[in-house]
Amino acid sequence: MVKSVRTPALPRTAAWRDIWSLAWPQTLLMFCNFLIGFVDVWVAGRIGSDVQASMGMINQLLFFFLVVATAVANGSVAAISQSMGAGLPRRALRYTGLVLEVGLVMGLAIFALGMFIDDGLLALLQVPDGLRPITSYFLDVYLLLLPVYYLFLITHAVFRAQRMVFVPLFSGIITALVNTVADLGLGLGMWGLPNLGYQGVAWATFFSVSCGTLFNLFVLWRRGLLRRESFAPWCWIRQAWPYLFRVAWPGGLMQVVWQSAYLALFAVTGSLPHENVAALAGMSAGMRVEAGLFLPGFAFNMTASILVGEYLGAGRPDMAKRATYRILGVGVAVLTLVAVGVWLVMEPLAAFVAPDPAVQAQAMGYLRWNLLAIPFTLTSMILAGALAGAGATIYNLLAFGCAAWLVRVPTAYILGHHVLGDSTGVWISMFVSQVFQSSLALGIFHFRDWSKFAMRRRKTLTGATNGTQLRTH
Hints:
- The protein has helices at 16-47, 49-65, 67-85, 89-116, 118-124, 132-161, 166-188, 198-222, 234-270, 276-293, 295-313, 317-344, 346-353, 357-372, 374-389, 393-419, 424-447.
- It is built from 17 helices and no strands.
């Protein structure tokens, strides 16, 4: 019996209180994540627009490197939450150990690969010559951080899957505080610390994520989730790995497709015939402001993953669908109102994150079109969370991949380079692709049988466990 892994008491209906109890701590966690990125961009803007532009490009590349971590995290939420819903705490414990092992190995492997091809990556991004030294330094530091970052993301997913949502919140607070102090101290030379400029901003990220990861590992150990019994023998792994892989690989490929499309979008923006550097910096600044809007959005995304996984594990696909629609309704309503409020203060927000007038104008253009897309973007986010909790990540790959490469990138190139000739074409392409993406995701969720992807504990009439499922309880 694993005392620290408790099977949740599932409500008979998808109660608002149950949704809110999971969503609000994760909203605060998303605020911490937003604060980290916001402070990074704010400090970078005070150092120079070239630093801000470099950071925007390298952050997209970092997301690309983290796709495997995100995929494993999605797989862990599906496997662990479904195990909890099925009343199998030992299986949940063993999946915890398995995803940590996979995350550490993959983080080290991608770090080694990245160090080998770093120059080629900068060339692929079409980094302007004036930005190359700064971008190269950010890349080297972030690559060094990768194994730690993998554990950071995966441990957060493990806690969420077991409804221990306050642990990632405390970890996020620690990370945000360390990052803010290090950014201001090392990036701008405050409090008597050495003024390292953009190098200080890079190391602030390294130190802050490392502190958050150490906290997560400590809590895992204290809660009994990181011990010898967490690491199952090979005979169990051979049965458990196929499901984790089936959930993870479409999620990982989706991240590759999506992030590569963003890199292509940065390349399209960086090669615009007019004001390309200002457009890159404005895009980076606008994305940071936009990220603030999605604090509850990401929380609802993760809440949908947890509840859908638990309900499917308990054999209640009807409640999983009902819970998702409730989350979707409240999420879209709240975020649309927030978007209206942000629209009214768009100019001072853009001025705050982008002191340079040219960059400020680009950031406002980015925000106008992406604020209009908020209802569509949030619909995609929440439905993606629900499908991930069900293990149906193949559908997310289809919706996001088609929107990115069949709509967004071609439209951005045609409008940005041939029709309008400036960044407005890129911003319009983002709006159009979100409308397409949300429509496709909603059609899939409503009409397709995504519950069949769940790892449910089925029983025959005699009470025996179906032999096709994992015999790990």
